[in-house]
Amino acid sequence: GMEGSEGSLVEQNRSLYISVEGLAGRKRRRVVDAGRGGERTRKSCMLGTGRSSHSDMAANVDGPTLHILDLLASCFHKSPVYITDALVSHLTTHHSVPSTNEYKEILPRRSMFDFDLTIQSRFQETPALMCVIELISHHPNQLKRCWAYLRSLLASCIGTWHSTKETKLNPQKHGQLLATTCQVLEAMARADWLQSPWNMASEVVQELPPAEIVRLLQAVWETLIKFPPQAGPYSPSKQKAEVTRLKPIFVDNIVALAPLYARFFPATKDQLLGHAEPPRL
User: Fold this and answer.
1) Residue 16, class by beta-carbon neighbours within 10 Å (0-12 exposed, 13-18 middle, 19+ buried)?
2) Has residue 274 been placed in a domain?
3) Which end of the chain has less neighbouring CB within 10 Å, N or C?
4) Does pTM top 0.85 for this prediction?
């Protein structure tokens, strides 16, 4: 549950600190202590800004990443509000947020809105920001404050996949984009923005060629626009209606997605008892 997820993140951060090369003796002990929750600076908690008290580590860990780790270490035991405040402050830009209609005009092509370019750039410069998103996603009320940023990331993923010329997924070339896409989908699912079977979309992405990934992400996009996080969880009737958007994707990629079919479209009670026709593709 929540404690296990947080513990995993803390352990990852501790391991990153400990693995810093070139430190020994007192310096390495200081790094280990920092990872275990020892004394840390309470100053300059803004993500990616200011300077850390661990100045002797600056040459080994880039500034933004170090400050994010400091933030997680110092605020983990407090309310997630502090973490969300810091993330929102870091991502706030003077550029206007594109409207739903503006996105509709350009997707699936790449977004050239200044807001999206800025958000994409900040996450590319500091990949550890996705760790912060992961943490916040355990608190749906807080993740709602990041809706514009996650929507922007999803739009960027759609546009980037759409611009890919390869007809097949290349794990080596598309690895980072695939990871970001899955992280965005998983954060949304964790916060119940995406309910079953949409909350398993990240599993489908990994089995599809780029063009079909675009198709899936657009279906996710349109579902989120129709039922945004602010509107609360989907009702069963709305959820059932939206599931039909997934079936054509399974039909056209049945060889790759056949093992997942039963999870996405489980048989009804009548079908299990033999009183109804099996679901048709």
Assistant:
1) middle
2) no
3) N
4) no
